[in-house]
């Protein structure tokens, strides 16, 4: 047999199986035609094994390429001034009700040209890639009318093509009520369900459908309508749930066999039970918890006790989580939420893959996509332990090494 690439002398954190981190010391991993062709202890390599490229990693750590399963990184402008306002005592809800918050980013996104949006957003995706991210979810939700939502999703796809990573796009039409529909909520929900979602799905721009279930967002009844429409179109759903208050959103998304419920600081026991029953992933977003100086913790012990898989993501957005490192999100999940480093790293690999409905990645195993991150450290816990810095040595996406320009 001849492989394309064979990496030798690696510490492999496979996240496959029950061993801590799925660790294989002194391991080898072979790539062929975009997939992992062999993985195991180097001593067990078949004697007839050959490869076009053989690389000695000298004991470096290899993990699956990291997966950021929740971002809003395509947007115009920034909201640094709101950071000031919040530090002076204004709450996120106060700012939103005064016409700032999401509405201000909607203005800046609508007026930016498509090229300008790409130019502003690309460096953010590049920063995530520089920290090991090879699969990235990007949501719409700052356009709130068909053409601008479309441009956001197109820019998201262009980011993937331009960087050579896999971008998954989520339609978040029910993110905020646009000013044009003040006092006409139902008309906006109609527009989302009857016009925007079908048109964008038809164009192949929608991998999943999300909504913001909150006092300052949308009600369960409104969200149910868009979930019904998504179901009719065969699209999976997920939800921003219980971020600022308990709206019983987790139970709603679980009822639709949702991929994930995200945030969850105010999640109830009933919500946890519903998620456990439906196999819905809990996506933890410690960047938003940190930036909002939230004090209420998501119910980590209860999620763990009920076997709900926990993913960790950046929530990269201009308001509540201007966070450009998934590794830092994992570190915060340990320090702020008390995940173990192994849980946090499973949260940015195998469980994040599940949150995106991607069965072909997230672990190092034969037959999975050859998406790998090679690090300048030797032990997996170091990825959560070092705060900042650049620890990435190389990434492979679909078996090809990427330039980390
Ligand atoms: N929850 C969040 O944390 C982001 N969206 C959401 O529904 C915040 C988006 C923003 O403030 O721009
Ligand atoms: Fe979000």
How confident is the prediction overall: mean pLDDT?
97
| Helix amount | 25-40%
Give the terminus-to-terminus CA distance.
33 Å
Ligands bound, unique: 3-[(4S)-2,5-dioxoimidazolidin-4-yl]propanoic acid, fe (iii) ion
Number of strands: 16
Shape: globular
Poorly predicted regions: none
Largest sheet: 8 strands, mixed
Radius of gyration: 21 Å
What would you call the structural class?
A: alpha/beta
Tally the helices: what do you get? 15
Report the portion of residues in β strands. 15-25%
Question: Can you tell me about this structure?
Answer:
Helix content is 36%, strand content 22%. It has 405 residues and is α/β, with parallel strands linked by helices. The mean pLDDT is 97. The strands form 3 sheets. Strands 1, 2, 3, 4, 5, 14, 15 and 16 form an 8-stranded mixed beta sheet that branches. It has helices at residues 80-87, 92-97, 102-111, 114-130, 146-163, 185-202, 220-232, 249-255, 269-278, 286-291, 300-305, 326-335, 341-347, 350-355, 382-385; strands at residues 2-13, 23-32, 35-41, 50-56, 61-64, 66-68, 133-139, 166-174, 208-211, 238-241, 260-263, 281-284, 310-312, 372-375, 392-397, 400-401. The protein is globular and about 70 Å long. It is built from 15 helices and 16 strands. 3-[(4S)-2,5-dioxoimidazolidin-4-yl]propanoic acid is lined by residues 72, 101-102, 105, 175, 212, 240, 243, 288, 315, 317-320.
Quick tags:
405 residues; alpha/beta; 8-stranded mixed sheet; 4-stranded parallel sheet; 15 helices; binds 3-[(4S)-2,5-dioxoimidazolidin-4-yl]propanoic acid; binds fe (iii) ion
């Amino acid at each position: 047999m001849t492989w394309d690439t064979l990496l030798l002398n690696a510490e492999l954190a496979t996240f496959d199986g029950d061993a801590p981190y799925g660790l294989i010391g002194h391991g080898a991993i072979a790539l062929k035609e975009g997939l992992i062709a062999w993985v195991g202890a180097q001593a067990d390599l078949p004697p007839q094994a050959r490869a076009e490229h053989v690389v000695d990693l000298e004991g470096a750590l290899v993990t699956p390429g990291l997966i950021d399963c929740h971002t809003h990184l395509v947007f115009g402008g920034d909201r640094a001034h709101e950071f000031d306002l919040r530090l002076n005592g204004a709450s996120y809800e106060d700012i939103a009700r005064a016409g700032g918050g999401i509405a201000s980013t909607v203005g800046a996104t609508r007026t930016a040209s498509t090229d300008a949006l790409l130019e502003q957003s690309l460096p953010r995706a590049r920063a995530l890639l520089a920290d090991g991210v090879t699969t990235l979810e990007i949501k719409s939700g700052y356009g709130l009318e068909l053409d601008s939502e479309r441009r956001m999703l197109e820019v998201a796809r262009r980011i993937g093509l331009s960087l050579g990573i896999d971008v998954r796009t989520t339609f978040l039409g029910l993110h905020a009520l646009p000013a044009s529909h003040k006092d006409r909520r139902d008309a906006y929900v109609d527009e989302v369900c009857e016009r925007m979602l079908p048109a964008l799905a038809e164009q192949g721009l929608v991998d999943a459908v999300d909504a913001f279930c909150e006092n300052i967002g949308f009600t369960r009844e409104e969200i149910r309508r868009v979930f019904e429409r998504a179901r009719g179109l065969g699209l999976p759903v997920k939800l921003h749930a219980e971020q600022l208050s308990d709206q019983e959103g987790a139970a709603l998304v679980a009822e639709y066999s949702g991929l994930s419920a995200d945030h969850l600081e105010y999640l109830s026991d009933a919500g946890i039970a519903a998620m456990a029953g439906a196999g819905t992933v809990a996506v933890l977003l410690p960047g938003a918890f940190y930036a909002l100086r939230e004090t209420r913790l998501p119910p980590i012990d209860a999620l763990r006790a009920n076997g709900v898989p926990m993913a960790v993501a950046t929530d990269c957005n201009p308001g509540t989580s201007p966070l450009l490192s998934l590794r830092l999100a994992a570190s915060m999940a340990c320090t702020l939420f008390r995940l173990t480093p192994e849980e946090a790293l499973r949260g940015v690999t195998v469980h994040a893959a599940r949150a995106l409905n991607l069965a072909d990645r997230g672990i190092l195993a034969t037959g999975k996509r050859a998406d790998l991150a090679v690090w300048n450290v030797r032990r997996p816990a170091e990825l959560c332990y070092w705060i900042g810095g650049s620890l990435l040595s190389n990434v492979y996406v679909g078996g090809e090494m990427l330039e980390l320009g």
